Task: structure prediction
Amino acid sequence: MMNPRVVFFGNAESDFSNYFYILLTKTNANIVAGINSLKTSTNPSRKHKSFKDDLIQKKIPVFEPNNINGKAFIAYLKKLKPDLFICIGYTEKLGEDILDIPEVAANFHASLLPAYRGRHPVFWALRNFEKYSGLSVHQMDQGIDTGDIFLQKKVEIKKNDTVSTLYSRIMKNSPGLIKKLVDDLSNKKLKRKPQEDSKSSYYSSTTENDFKINWNRSAAQITRWINITPGKCFTIINNKKVFLEKSKAVKKRTGKKPGTIIIDDDSQAIVAANDYTVKIIKSIQK
Result:
């Protein structure tokens, strides 16, 4: 069994990155460098130590390149002679030249590929009322999350999940994947499964418009959208944004135009949707 030389790509602000980095340190991998993304994480770290801080403490080099695909940086990575890239929460696209360096360049993607390729897969799976999500470990290539799958873990989505709770459950149910990846590579037993493109779906980054409530939708859909990202969805009242933190669908027809406020007091508001109503339990005006 060899001890694979690993370069870890992640986001030091991300719980997703830091959790799996900790698990990586418990394998037989020889971590030779870390690459940190400077982009703001959608899954901020609250529970786990920053992988960047840990690597610095261990005197292992950490880089934050402006151009991950720059010739000078690629030349440096080649000198490290890595066997494995592990990419978890790192959002910059790696070009062909850099991906050719290691034997395996593995990305950890929070969906059941080929479904939900692209950005924010947990967010979109929740918005679309999926029953399952999960984690896929796949080879990186020049497509977006299109490479062969090494490992997968299926995770049930619960009715009251938020983006944060579903990410936490995915992590909690997938601790063995990073060790198996390292062990299988070490023992020359790593298997690949091509993705079925006919079953694929792709979602891009969110925009402000994705969080603006469209009251012409169903009460169930509006409620789901509000509750999976507390405090991010908003509506406009008196030319001001009101951010909605918690809501509940109420099966009551009013005959009112969608968006009409039926009741509005200090404790709650009830708003007409295109079928029933939505009870706004908590909101913040900015």
Remarks:
- The helical segments are 15-24, 51-57, 71-80, 96-99, 121-127, 163-172, 176-186, 219-228.
- Residues 176-186 form the longest helix (11 residues).
